Amino acid sequence: MTVSKTIARLTVGFATLFYFSAANAQFTKYVQPMAGTGIATTASATKHGENADTRFANTIPAVTLPFAMTQWAPQTQAGETKCVPPYYYKDNRFGGIRGSHWLSGSCTQDYGSFTIMPISGKLKTANYHATFSHTDEVATPYKYTIDLKQYQLQASVTSTLRSGMMQFTMDKADSLYLLVSANSNYQEGFVKVDAQRGEISGYNPAHRIYQGWGKSAGFSGYFVIRFERQLTSTGTFSNDKIFKLDSIKNEKGNGVYAGFKLNKGEKLTIRMGTSFTGLDGARKNLQAEMPGFNFDQAVANSKAVWEKALGQINVQTVDERDKRIFYTSYYHAMQHPRLFSDVDGKYPRFAGNYQNEQLAKGQHYYDDFSMWDIYRAQIPLFEILDPPMIGSFVNSLLLKGQQGGWMPIFPCWNSYTSEMIGDHTTSVISSAYLKGIRGYNVDQAYQILRHNAFDINTNRADYVEGKGRRALDSHLKYGYIPVEDSVLDAFHKMEQVSRTMEYAYDDYALAQFAKGINKTADHNTLMKRAGYYKNIFDTSTGFVRGRHADGSWVSPFDPDKKATFITEGTARQYTFYVPHDVAGLSKLMGGSKKLETALDDLFSKGEYWHGNEPGHQIPFMYNYTSSPWKTQAAVRQILADEYSDGPGGLGGNDDAGQMSAWYMFASLGFYPVNPVSGEYLLCAPLFDKAIIKLKNSKAFQLIAHKKSKTAQYIYAVKLNGKVMPNSYIRYKDIIVGAKLEVFLQDTPAANWANKSQYQPKGM
């Protein structure tokens, strides 16, 4: 049974109760939702982050379920502004509980959200924020509670996949007012109170950013709120102006209020349903997932789902801090992609205009794929943990390609964005096919990916909207993207060298897909293009470098300074982005010893930047040299330096769980440098033992045999009891259930896996 089906089963109704005492909380007790909500203080973040604002991990203390539609989070930052999450740990003014669609760990924008703020005493609709301290908060994945001393009340929230429940407890006899705001930055929100029905409803239209910035995304975030008692005192407001009306629309700071008289200790419980298809969808989702008002029961159900999800990996160590970082990473890695379909299978058409589509029974539609980030480790993680869910992700991506005509580059807020570079949906879908993951039409999948890779979009209007690979015409003409092509029709303009390199990887990925379905001509063409990274490698300097259309190199050149032809980094950092052909890169450099020296230089100069994704494979690349032990040392150092369990516990944007997934892989002892290959480079496990429960009822066990507590260097590996000389393990070995034993000592084992025959071959 897939994670999504398990969640659906657990959250539809309350026929079965799932109660867990604190002692039963085996895994959720380790999750630290505040991790990543503060400014990163790691060495690489301080050096490479442009300013303090870019060093926020931008995670939020989300109360949600794995891959849910809506996250419920405390709000300290109002509105839906790019790069500003609903919550910062540095803040001390509480503005309510938000039903959020924030892309966890990102620098994008929230959309379609709404906020509920409780106040007591006299009604006020402006300057109502409550001062708080972090000792007033209790945050878990399944419940958030805050003590608002200023108002002498407590507010709590819990969640299902598409709905939530809040409970307010009074510390004094007084009036309780709930202020419900649609958070539209475009003054387009609508909120209505229906006292007879006992319901508040509304919507907040979503807008695009990047390609088509500011245009309608073609859907809204809809919500309905149901109350356990009759509504008597109600009205609307626009900032500090209060009206005795039942609805308000397209006003700045608009919302509705509902007032109640409560005694000391009395509780008020409300239920909230959300949808992207309409108010009817929100009502159906609420009725299916939360038909009653039993708050404790709802909390227990949510907790049970998280315990089951987190319990799929059981790590064993005496270091409780490492467990906290691991399970917090796991929690962060399960925020996205986001469920976008209702309980009845309706979902908004991709890149549409308020049209809804219908899924077949049992299917789910997902969106918010931070694709440039998550194809590296977060998606590969769930290829192991939940292959059927990956099939559902792939099917969702294919629906986007079919409905929009082109496969989206970075599909978020159900729209074309062309944010970031590359075409990494190709990697995700090709990888799924090669690993035997199905649940979609294989031929259609290949044709849509091929369309992006081979066809130049000549429809100017469509291209500007984000349809088709950026600068594909230049890439195919020159075998690289020259600096004369500024790639103007993209949010990330220029970045020609990085684009060339990432297209090379994507073409390699599609070539493997083509080979698997006997598209020989395509395979040969794509494999040639997979080598285009060589065309922007300058052998005289040993780095990738900007190149003119006439073949000459851009000058002056400093590999350690940020350049317009590199994405979010330097030439030194990006030189190592050849995940599909490390052996080929090594040859360009002059051999594996030169590759090792280049890696040494990167680390010794302090140029490794863990807070951004292009370098995430770099520490594992020593496994392609005669010194794999350096991977073991580098990874262990990064685990120690770049992650903690505090608010500043991530060295940069978590980017929908990629940073967190890196930690999970690296701490377990293996990592997918070349995600499409099904090969995982080994490093020293951080834990004594880890058991991964697979969906086929098998298990993948990782056991570390240490000569001492500090041992971190591999001197031998066994797979299912047999000595394995390779520096990598294959997906096909993991997914059938296996036992991997790694033997560690305190000093480097210079002879372990130090020859090319024990290393992945790449191209």
TrEMBL record:
Entry cofactors: Ca(2+)
Signal peptide range: 1-25
GO BP field: carbohydrate metabolic process; glycoprotein catabolic process
Record-annotated Glycosyl hydrolase family 92 N-terminal domain positions: 30-275
Domain annotation Glycosyl hydrolase family: ranges: 281-745
GO MF terms held by the record: carbohydrate binding; hydrolase activity, acting on glycosyl bonds; peptide-N4-(N-acetyl-beta-glucosaminyl)asparagine amidase activity
UniProt-listed Enzyme Commission number(s): 3.2.1.-
Coiled-coil ranges per UniProt: none
Calcium is among the record's keywords: yes
One Gene Ontology cellular component: cytosol
Keywords: Calcium, Glycosidase, Hydrolase, Signal
Main EC class the enzyme belongs to: hydrolase
Subunit structure, interactors included: Monomer.
Protein name: GH92 family glycosyl hydrolase
Species for this entry: Mucilaginibacter myungsuensis
The organism's taxonomic lineage, starting at the top: Bacteria, Pseudomonadati, Bacteroidota, Sphingobacteriia, Sphingobacteriales
